[in-house]
């Protein structure tokens, strides 16, 4: 293998698994250390700079960082750091941070931007462009900002006060809001001579199932996201005692849990796929089951049973999943009798689609075969250079943190576009690599690896939360638990940096490394090299760090996979060939 | 400063026949200087014991005084240990070995502990062929007392202080051969590929097995001018051949190229393959070994690898025809079998 180029910012970035997995690349270990140090304001601002909604995301994020977390790989039964809920610790315990928000210039730059939809993507664009002096108009059909975070995420997961606060930080920058305003024509917006238009309208159309009996069942069958919105906006305040929720995603989990709070007693989730294949996050499934909601998997809905014009229930066909050699799944009927389940109401949460009936097709915006706008994956520009898309509106339903990441990138593009620079000129990330050495064996980070298992977030009593739809279920970590959970972080951003000329090949690092990451071997092709190491490096997703050739014609090879970042290699190195250096990677934002 | 190792280990660590991973053979975190060769030797001992699937409670590690003699704390944390008076480790092993011949005795000593204060003890353990592994962590200086030249420092070798050593060096393998040792090897802390099989062979050998391991002192004796530095040893080491150790319960799967190779079955049924042997060395001939050692020394080379082995070694118990059962398991009835037995013995003498 060729020596690893650690000057490439992506090499060490990839070692910070959580940050690398985060669509917005939030510097996770950095803010976790700040939490451990009790610096909640600083931890909050690190988050806010990167993901804009720390309090919201600390409760609702899809947390792609956690499955990626190295802590979850270092031993059987070991779980990732509760990164998401630590973010909430920062948000819950911060003081007034308003003085630390960016200053909005009084002298505007003369450019006007329209944001259509006031969800996370649009708000992120506003957050990045307002400090640069743009005039921004935001349009939304709801009465307040937040988009799906307001209409689809129930209050027992995300209290309105948290949402209002973080949406407010952005709108208070001087964004001109046009709420309760349904945009029915993009053309009319373009005609207002905005310098750029950003479309962040989400994926607002919930899918339905056209099964026999649907027409008669009529008013007792609801589209999940529409029903959640109707509950959120207090148009709906009750539901039947027996509720069937169709679907296996997070919306289905929100639907069933909301049903429990609106009078549903026998609430069931029925899903076609096996339990393990369900789209919902594992913790959301757990939370639903904790509230006494059974999940019936491998049941395909067949028919609404209606008697005398009244919905009685539904029939389901039992199936089992079979996988071909390519891993492609098919659901094969078991041949058993159809299963009948009683229901007063049925909620369908089987997916959502984009819908752009309000975008005229003669505006120079190309649409593809799936009726989705053609959007550049890096610049978020459509084929009409003045129109940008982001969030679910760009490439279909994802999640809040992805929308935020899109928003940051779209803001860069809009800023470049308004300054007449090519939008393909993407700014390089800001990186910083600093030694953490404080003395011969002293580091400026807490390198000791704690043995604690992942702490569980405490919850409010079930009977109380089921009585009150607005009562938040999770209580968040208290300060001491938050500290202990923060201490579980391995500090993967503190990199092991190897300086070949200093190495005397004494093997001290090889001997001390608790997880056998380091080997000194003859070089070879990667596939061969992976088998030659102290412990075979089977995780191909994790890179090998290869040095230049040493005097004995060998190379140092470090498998990044299960490195604890404990610093022992550097502590036991007599010549400081190893050093622990903190790597900060930050995605450059518009105007920086 | 880290005072303990993290508890986490590589999740795919191999387990041996006993179901133990290498971690089960480790000790506590080393307090020796960073980069000390002794830590590498500790690592090699851990690997050898794990790969041989030895039961940790059947090993006794014994040492004297010095940096070397601190190191048993850093390996085999679940084995018996005895940190004896300076240079007196061989006496303690002698006593322990007499009392319980069923344990593996792993003596760890340094150049001071062996070649100076413990020289007399060392010599007699060798000539009695006490059944033990005797590892000398040899760095040519007294590291614990700020790096004075030790008795194994080569004449002319200079430590960090800069003055060349005016005295002649004691060559421990040469001395052991002269004293009748039945297993003599030399290795280098920076060469685990050679050291691990040598330790395994020494463990399987019945009788006194000396491994003189050159182990650079990074703090006081790893400078230009020293003959015990990492660089010097790497440049001047000359292996007698490669050593491959195949434990008894494993099938021999490696194929060995034609050439000078020897194969020897050890006392416990393990097999030792010696490959690419130097043409002028017969490791089963004491005189050949002594000559090779002297000649390499005269040429400024450091001969490493297995230097000599007596295939027919008889250890102290064999020589003294002691009880097969460990003495510590003999109870009063065994030791005082009664008047009748005494009468029989007396009768046999009449």
Oligomer: heterodimer
- The secondary-structure element order of chain B is HEHEHEHHEEEHEHEHEEEEHEHHH
Biggest β-sheet strands, sense, barrel of chain A: 5 strands, parallel
Give the overall form of chain B.
Answer: globular
Structural class of chain A: alpha/beta
Span from first to last CA of chain A?
A: 36 Å
Biggest sheet descriptor of chain B: 8 strands, mixed
Global mean pLDDT of chain A: 95
Secondary structure category of chain B = alpha/beta
CATH homologous superfamily label of chain B = Thiamin diphosphate (ThDP)-binding fold, Pyr/PP domains
Shape of chain A: globular
The strand count of chain B comes to 13
Tally of contiguous helical segments of chain A? 22
End-to-end separation of chain B: 73 Å
Q: How many E-type strands of chain A?
A: 24
CATH architecture of chain B: 3-Layer(aba) Sandwich
Radius of gyration of chain B, taken over Cα atoms and rounded to an integer in Å: 21 Å
CATH top level of chain B is Alpha Beta
Question: In CATH, what is the homologous superfamily of the domain at 106-204 and 354-418 in chain A?
Answer: FAD/NAD(P)-binding domain
Notes on the protein architecture:
The complex is a heterodimer of chains A (592) and B (350). Chain A has 592 residues and is α/β, with parallel strands linked by helices. Among the domains of chain A are: 106-204 and 354-418, FAD/NAD(P)-binding domain, CATH 3.50.50; 206-351, FAD/NAD(P)-binding domain (3-Layer(bba) Sandwich), CATH 3.50.50. Helices cover 29% and strands 19% of the residues of chain A. In chain A, helix 3 (28-36) packs antiparallel against helix 4 (40-51) and helix 13 crosses helix 14. Chain B has 350 residues and is an alpha/beta fold. Chain B has one domain (22-320): Rossmann fold, CATH 3.40.50. Chain B is built from 12 helices and 13 strands. Chain B has an 8-stranded mixed sheet with strand order 2-1-3-4-8-7-13-9, with helices on both faces. In chain B, strands 10-12-11 form a 3-stranded antiparallel sheet. In chain B, strands 5-6 form a two-stranded antiparallel ribbon. The longest helix of chain B is centred in the first third of the chain and has 15 residues, at 37-51. Chain A binds chain B through residues 73-76, 78, 441-442, 447-449, 451, 504-508, 510-512, 514-517, 535-536, 538, 551-552, 562, 564, 566-568, 571-575, and chain B through 1-2, 5-13, 29-30, 33-37, 39-40, 42-43, 189-190, 192, 216, 218-219, 222, 230-231, 234.
